[in-house]
Design brief:
globular, 18 helices, mainly alpha, disordered N terminus, 0% strand, 78% helix
Length: 478
């Protein structure tokens, strides 16, 4: 199928009513993104079972989650280039094809090593889907309707992670861990088939070259930072702590080198991530706000199951059900928040959401073994509502001001920093939990970790006060 021309895209954007073809493209990508992000958290409550079945230690089994997130953090920076170089249809087929292949391999994995490889292959496909979805929305959706459409994206980025533990908990109650992937595979294959039949190409391809040194730098830069944070403060021996500190140092240096190379390439080359997006104030503020929000979301998704299972002694199914209402609340609020954004702008939404996030994380820092489960559900729903009030305005206000030639880079930058923030936030809070638990017990560990999360979240209040409704994108520079 031939790509749409810029004139056709502009004509489409001039109307507030989206063509059926555009709706079909976005709906297909939204379903596919939901499936791959659901898979991202499906392992959380399954790790104890996998330790027993695969005969590996806790530190080893954690790599099924850590390896997935590290792969995401390394691959996503390349999506800005990939989305400009290849057609929408090609990128979708490659991404969903990789995800389906990794899922099928996980179903038949004979041991830990093959299962880890399968998760890495899944992550390669997952890494591309969210930037692809966001770039497509920016290209097809008129400015005045982007809030409403972006609100639907929160269904994928919030409901899917919340459903992951619930789905895996229900499956593990009666079936083998392999059925977690058996459950996901047919849905992923169906999304792939629908996309292969109906997905059309949008935008225009670029002919820029891939900067190989930049790609190589992403591995120690993003991987080193996340791995280093996950190791520092853990319960390993002195040797592993030294290794983690070394990895963090290498990561920071490599990240600085990566940034400097992108800046240098902006003047005469083709940067892997075009950092000129940060010249737009709302993009910078919104990205920082999303980083804080993702740390809160992923930290809660990790810490709450630990608390519910180790302190409250709930089984995996009950744990998943406790987390489910919060995720559903966030998803249901997403489209509502999107419509409110189009009507009143981001400021009232983000300020309310950030304050609510801080208050709920502070309440979690008061948890004990005697805290009623209904109160935990209530506070988690409040936290989810606060995050829903942040996500859609931050995405929309941050990306709206960008010119079309920065769409793919802007969405790739946001997605990269979200993954790094989620991985680093999780690593940091789990490490704090481990240290505090070793000193004063699990209750103290949970309270300390959530208190740190609440302190970090205070930054979101200040960032939220800076949010303004985005203006129309400028004419793209030649």
């Amino acid at each position: 199928m031939s790509s749409k021309t810029s004139a056709e895209i502009s004509a489409s954007a001039a109307s507030t009513k989206m063509p059926k073809e555009s709706v079909a493209v976005i709906a297909t990508l939204l379903v596919a993104t939901f499936v791959v992000i659901l898979n991202e958290t499906i392992m959380n409550v399954a790790l104890p079972r996998l330790m027993l079945d695969l005969h590996v230690s806790a530190s080893t089994i954690q790599w099924l989650s850590t390896g997935f997130m590290l792969t995401m953090a390394v691959v996503i920076p390349t999506t800005g280039f990939v989305l400009q170089r290849l057609t929408t249809r090609t990128v979708f087929l490659l991404a969903m094809g990789a995800f389906c292949a990794g899922t099928a391999l996980a179903v038949v994995a004979p041991g830990f090593e093959v299962l880890l490889l399968a998760r890495v292959i899944q992550a390669v496909g997952t890494a591309t889907m969210l930037p692809l979805l966001i770039t497509t929305i920016l290209t097809l959706v008129p400015l005045e309707r982007r809030g409403s459409v972006m609100g639907n994206v929160t269904i994928a980025i919030s409901v899917a992670p919340a459903l992951g533990p619930t789905v895996s908990g229900l499956i593990l109650q009666a079936l083998s861990w392999r059925f977690m992937f058996v459950f996901v595979l047919p849905i992923a294959l169906l999304a792939l088939a629908i996309g292969a039949k109906y997905l059309t190409n949008i935008g225009e391809k670029d002919v820029s070259k891939l900067d190989v040194p930049s790609v190589i730098l992403t591995v120690p830069a993003f991987g080193g930072v996340v791995y280093g944070l996950s190791g520092i403060g853990g319960q390993g021996d002195d040797g592993s702590t030294v290794l983690a500190i070394a990895a963090l140092g290498i990561g920071v240096v490599s990240l600085a080198a990566f940034v400097l190379r992108q800046v240098r390439l902006q003047t005469g080359g083709a940067p892997l991530l075009d950092l000129r997006a940060f010249r737009f104030r709302m993009f910078t503020v919104s990205t920082m706000l999303l980083v804080v929000a993702m740390m809160a979301l992923f930290g809660s998704v990790i810490l709450l199951p630990i608390y519910l299972q180790q302190v409250h002694h709930l089984d995996s199914v009950t744990t998943g059900l406790v987390l489910l209402p919060g995720g559903l609340a966030m998803g249901l609020l997403g489209p509502v928040v999107g419509r409110l954004y189009d009507r009143i702008g981001p400021l009232p939404l983000t300020v309310t959401g950030s304050v609510l996030m801080v208050l709920c994380l502070w309440q979690f820092s008061l948890l004990t073994a005697l805290t009623p489960v209904w109160w935990i559900v209530t506070v988690y729903m409040g936290l989810s509502a606060g995050l829903a009030l942040l996500f859609t305005p931050a995405f929309t206000s941050g990306l709206n001001p960008l010119p079309p030639h920065l769409y793919s880079h802007g969405s790739a930058i946001m997605s990269t920093l979200q993954q790094v923030a989620g991985a680093a936030g999780t690593a940091l809070l789990v490490s704090i939990f481990a240290v505090a638990t070793a000193m004063s017990g699990e209750e103290a560990g949970i309270r300390t970790a959530f208190l740190v999360a609440a302190v970090i979240a205070v930054a979101a209040v200040g960032l939220s006060a800076l949010m303004r409704k985005a203006q129309a994108p400028p004419v793209p520079a030649e």
